[in-house]
Design brief:
Blueprint (H helix, E strand, L loop, with lengths): L1 E5 L2 H18 L4 E4 L6 H12 L9 E4 L1 E3 L10 H13 L6 E2 L8 H14 L5 E4 L21 E4 L2 H7 L12 E4 L2 H5 L4 E5 L5 H9 L17 E6 L8
Parallel strand pairs: 1-10, 2-3, 2-6, 3-5, 6-9, 9-10
Antiparallel strand pairs: 4-8, 7-8
Bound molecules: fructose -6-phosphate.
Length: 242
């Protein structure tokens, strides 16, 4: 695992964006795994800037989101369908037909999860997966105790994650209780992983992921198993590393 510690959050976004840009420049029809939440926003802003400047073209790039809430209509502003459209697909100029988000409204969620896995495989797998990390060490919505070999499935969100995400909703109660997420095994199948974290609130989780034991107690510790994982953090998020 490669660890890159940078002075501030803006620099984290720029350096991580360069990793993604290199992949897309080499393989314009490649596949990007897309995280939502606050952590990757600076990456998307920088990639959008480069696309606007004509340095990159995402029109043939495929995207697969990591996760989605169960039960939120796709046009709800906080559904990840809407968030990915607003923060990634439109600003980067991806073709909406080439962007997939797990279906949290499916009548048969296990079948929809299996179809999602099949769609990733049919696309040739994910070339580069962008990841944030929860304060409890989750990646995607693989909460602590998730199986290290899990595939895309429905999960219950922990009270901690619901409280952390309440900032996006009108109230804590409005945060959905369940989600559909790529599994840890799905994430490990990506050819390259780029995890970004900013701020002291992520310092414990980053230290557990990078220096702690490989453990379902810290799902992000599975990055230790990956041959090509890069963790890009600012000094505050790195503050608990030895
Ligand atoms: C979102 C996701 C989550 C977030 C994590 C950190 O698609 O997969 O693992 O990356 O909850 O969220 P932020 O970045 O908002 O602190």
């Amino acid at each position: 695992m490669e660890i890159v510690i940078l002075p501030d959050a803006a620099e984290v976004g720029r350096v991580a964006a360069s990793v993604i840009a290199d992949v897309v420049a080499r393989k314009p029809d490649g596949v990007i795994g897309l995280a939502t939440g606050s952590s990757p926003l600076a990456i998307y802003e920088e990639l959008s800037r480069r696309a606007d400047a004509g340095e990159l073209n995402f029109s043939r790039t495929r995207g697969f989101a990591l996760d989605e809430y169960v039960g939120l209509p796709f046009d709800h502003p906080e559904s990840y369908h809407a968030v990915i459209d607003r923060t990634v697909t439109r600003p980067l100029g991806l073709d909406p037909a080439l962007v997939s988000v797990p279906d949290g409204l499916a009548d048969d969620i296990p079948a929809a999860c299996a179809a999602y896995e099949a769609a990733i495989a049919a696309a040739g797998g994910i070339d580069v997966q962008i990841l944030g990390i929860g304060a409890n060490g989750h990646i995607g919505f693989n909460e602590p105790t998730s199986s290290l070999s899990s595939r895309t499935r429905i999960k219950t969100l922990t009270p901690k994650t619901r409280a952390d995400n309440a900032r996006f909703f009108d109230s804590a109660e409005a945060v959905p209780t369940h989600c559909v997420t790529q599994g840890l095994g799905t994430i490990l199948d990506a050819k390259r992983l780029v995890l970004v974290a900013q701020g002291s609130g992520k310092a414990e989780a980053v230290a557990a992921a990078v220096e702690g034991p490989l453990s379902a107690s810290c799902p992000a510790s599975v990055l230790q198993l990956h041959e090509h994982a890069t963790v890009i953090v600012d000094e505050a998020a790195a503050s608990r590393l030895h």
